[in-house]
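Reading a protein record of the kind used here takes only a little practice. These numbers are not coordinates but entries in a learned vocabulary of local backbone shapes. Here is one such record, which you should read through line by line.
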Amino acid sequence: MHLRLPATPEAVALALDALERDPLLLQGLDARARYAVELVTEEVLMNVAMHAGLASSEPLPVGFSACREAASVVLEFVYGGQAFDPREAPPPRPAASLDDARVGGLGLVLVRRMSSAIDHAFTDGVNRLRVVVAERG
């Protein structure tokens, strides 16, 4: 499956819908792996929409693809903007109290936990992020 989407929050629903419509992509995956594929897709696309194109008045285009490799799903995201390797982003600092806690900021933590492998390259002004979600059998 290959899509080209605008980096907008609304495009997340299009990507998730495409995942569900592909008859072979998620078929036979256990519930945890299915959930992980959907969560990783949503979190990465939302991060691109919220952060990658801040310098542009128009949403950046994002190439999104997903394919099945045995008991894994490989997700690939290709987009412009600033170089950003999610493997190098520091984890958020814990709030000192419940009153200081803020909503959000845990997307990359979830992506790291739900993935079995993450690779990133930035070449010629383009981020290429590859995330593998494997069943844990």
In short: The two ends are 25 Å apart (CA to CA). The longest strand covers residues 61-69. The first helix runs from residue 9 to 21.
